[in-house]
Amino acid sequence: xxxxxxxxxxxxxxxxxxxxxxxxxxxxxxxxxxxxxxxxxxxxxxxxxxxxxxxxxxxxxxxxxxxxxxxxxxxxxxxxxxxxxxxxxxxxxxxxxxxxxxxxxxxxxxxxxxxxxxxxxxxxxxxxxxxxxxxxxxxxxxxxxxxxxxxxxxxxxxxxxxxxx
Length: 165
Known about the structure:
By secondary structure, this protein is mainly alpha-helical. The chain has a single domain, classed as Arp2/3 complex 21 kDa subunit ARPC3, CATH 1.10.1760.20. It has helices at about 1-20, 35-45, 50-65, 75-95, 100-125, 135-155.
């Protein structure tokens, strides 16, 4: 029961961060910090990959419902990015080669890559969008570092036993 309560709590935290982030100014209209991913990273390091996947999927589903874009192109972009990110983070986490900040950066980059792949395949079908790749990688590097540091700090605060390498 404690596991399920922690997962549910992290879903709520992810939703709150998602809502909070919608009110923050954005340097580029479609670029977000990805603060809601803090809940996913905490779930990964505290409870495991299955919990991280659950937090990510339910956060995206419920958050999309709240903002009114459930089953829209934006929803599928978010879901594809989230699924690819949590898979990549889980893989690199279990390899135990990278620390939490590196795993967070990997998640941010793969989230952007997943969204770009879906956008190219379903929406744009042209090569012009690939010019965004360097911008998305740099954004992923920056946001991944920020989210990773916050996640690291919060995991230490809750006393989670996790790999700090």
